[in-house]
Design brief:
By secondary structure, the chain is mainly alpha-helical. It is built from 3 helices and 4 strands, in the order E-E-E-E-H-H-H. Helix 2 packs antiparallel against helix 3. The radius of gyration is 19 Å and the shape is globular.
């Protein structure tokens, strides 16, 4: 997808936010030059797929496949680590799904894990 064909996203103050798209075959962000998906790209993707987390994972798994082929062609020795690429493209989506009132990657407190004894009623 060409950067010019993607409409800008507007932030709360109605300023245009440039979409953080990948520069292929390097898979770096066109805006900030970080490894794509960079943090702003992850935020924008999370907003875009906020009602379809599975769809986001499927989309990014397809891009992981393409990126793996591109990055191996560019630098076959040493090839990129499959675990690092998975974490970079897909793994963060599962961590984001755990976010909630307890924070990212944290689970709600289980009463059985508490040190203090339960109160009697």
């Amino acid at each position: 997808m060409a950067a010019s064909s993607v409409p800008p996203v507007h932030d709360r103050q109605r300023r245009a936010v440039r979409p953080h798209l990948p520069m292929r075959p390097l898979w770096l962000c066109r805006v900030c030059a970080a490894a794509w998906p960079c943090q702003p790209a992850r935020l924008l993707l999370t907003m875009e797929y906020r009602r379809d987390r599975v769809g986001l994972s499927v989309y990014l798994a397809g891009l992981l496949f393409e990126a793996t082929a591109d990055l191996i062609k560019l630098n076959p020795n040493p090839a990129p680590s499959p675990a690092e690429l998975f974490a970079r493209f897909v793994g963060w989506t599962a961590r984001g799904a755990e976010s909630g009132p307890t924070g990212p990657g944290r689970r709600a407190a289980d009463p059985a894990d508490r040190d203090d004894p339960p109160r009697s009623r």
